[in-house]
Write a structure and sequence with these properties.
Blueprint: H1 8-18, H2 25-37, H3 39-71
Helix pairs in contact: 1-2, 1-3, 2-3
């Protein structure tokens, strides 16, 4: 059996990977255990989750902006 607690480097890599794919049950448990003990990695995990949500909204905002510009009359030069 492996180590019970991940290092911060391992925890940050797993936090990042968890954004893209499901973790194995043991990885998920060990990551949660690490996050309960480490405020730095918990902050990192929250920050990457925030950045992921924000980056997903950027295309939506660009589409909305383009739609609103399409409704504006075009100036003739």
């Amino acid at each position: 059996m492996g180590k019970l607690m991940y290092s911060c480097e391992q925890a940050s890599m797993l936090s990042s990977r968890a954004m893209d794919e499901p973790l194995a049950p043991l990885e998920r448990i060990q990551l949660r255990f690490h996050l309960m003990m480490c405020t730095g990695c918990t902050s990192f995990s929250h920050q990457i989750a925030f950045l992921r949500r924000a980056s997903q909204k950027v295309p939506e905002a660009l589409e909305t902006d383009e739609d609103s510009r399409a409704d504006e009359p075009r100036s003739r030069g």
